[in-house]
Amino acid sequence: MKKQIIIALALLVTSFSFSQKDELKDAEKAIKSGNFADAKAAIKSAESLIANADEKTKAKFYFLKGQSLYANGNASNEDMNEAIASFDKVVEIEKKDGKEKYTSEVNETKQMMLSTFLTKANKALEDKNFSASSIGFEKAYRMSPKDTLYLYYAASTAVNAQDYKTSLKYYEELRDLGFTGVEMEYTAVLKESGEVETFSSKQLRDISVKAGTHISPKDKKSDSKKGEIIKNIALIYVNNGENEKALAAMKQAREANPDDLSLILSEANVQLKMGNREEFKKLIEIATQKDPNNAELQYNLGVVAAEAGDAASATKYYEKAIALDPEYADAYNNMAVLTLGKEQEIIEKMNGLGTSAADNKKYDELKEQRTQLYRDAIPYLEKTLQIRPKNLEAAKTLMNIYSALGQTAKFKEMKAKVETLQAGG
Predict the structure, then answer these.
(1) pLDDT tens, residue by residue, 304-313
(2) Inter-helix orientation angle 311-324/329-340, to 10°
(3) CATH class in words for 2-101
(4) What is the C-alpha to C-alpha distance for residues 253 and 264, in angstroms, rounded to an integer?
(5) Which end of the chain is more exposed for a tag (fewer CB within 10 A), N or C?
(6) pLDDT attached to residue 43
(7) For residue 370, what is the DSSP state?
(8) CA distances for 12 relative to 9, 19, 57, 292, angstroms
C-alpha cells in the first residue's frame, strides 16, 4: 500500500511539472508574438507551482515573467517594478546556480529599460511634468543602483512636483547611503569664445585641447550635495510642521561633520525658515569665520541686519559682499534700498514743519537731503541694472528718481526700458 502511495505522488508531481512547462511554453510563445496579456496569464497559472521547481526552471520562469510584465517598454509603473524584481531574481538564481543561460539577455533588457526610463524622465523634465520625471529617475536608479545620482534626480524632481512625502523618502535613502554627489569635472576654455566648457570625460577634454580648439584644461571635484540633502530633509520636516525632527536632522549631520560649511549654511536656512533669526545670524557668523571671503555669507548677514533695523551694520556687510564680488547684483540693489529707506524719516520731518522763516529754511535743507539720497542711490541702481538688465523694479525706481531730479533725457530712456520690460522684452 505504501508503494502505491509513493508511486501516486510521484505521478502527481510529474503531472504538475508537465503542466508548468506547458504554461511556460505558452508564455514564451505569447511573448514572441507580442501578446503580453496572454503571456501574463500563462505566467500567473505557473506561479503557484514554481516554488518546487528546479533552479533552471525557476530562472526561466522569472525571465519570462519579467519579459511579460515589461511588455517591450509599455508596462504600467506597477508592472515595471515587478519586471525589475523578476529580472533581478533571474540573475540571483543563475549566479547561485553557476549557470548563466538568461543573465546576458536580462542585462541587455535591463540596459534597454534603463535607457527608456532615462529618456522618459528627461522628456518629462523638459515638459515640466515633474512627477513623471521623478518616477522615471527612481526606476532608472532601481535598474542601476550604482548610479545614485538618478535617485538624487528623483528626489529633486519630486520636490518640484510638491510630492514631499516621496522626496523625503528618497532624500533619507540618499543620506543613509552616504551619497555626496561629488564628481570629477573636466573643463577647458573654448579659444574662440573664451567660455569654459565641461566635458563628460578627461579623454574627450584632452582630445579637444590637443586639437587646439580649447586651452587651460582643469580637473576639479564638484561640490558635495550632502549639505543640500540634509537641508531639504529638514525643510520638508519644517513644511510638515515637524520642527523638532528638522533640528534633530541638522544636529545629527553637523555632529558627524562639524567643519562642513554646507551643513552650517543648511542649518542656517532651516533656522531662518522657522523664523529663528538670531540663530540664523549666529550660524552665518560662524560660517563667515570659516570662509571670510564668501560674498554670499556677508550679503546674508546684511539682510539680517537690515531686517533688524541695523542699517549701519547692513551697509558694512553689503559693502564687504561687493568688495569680495563686484558683480553681486543683490548687494548693490539692497544698498539702494537701504539708502532710499532713509527717505520716509525726512518726509515726516518735512510734513511736520510750519510756515515760519526758520521752518522754510529747515524745509529746504531737508529737501536737499532727500535729493542727495536720490543721487546716492543712483550708482547702486545703475550697477544693478548693468548686471541684471531685466530687473524691472530697479528700472522703475531709477525712472522715478530721474524724474524727481529733473534729468529728462535719462527719465525718457528709463521709461522706454520699463515699458519694454513690462511688455516682456
Answers:
(1) 788 878 899 8
(2) 150
(3) mainly alpha
(4) 10
(5) N
(6) 85
(7) H
(8) 5, 11, 18, 81
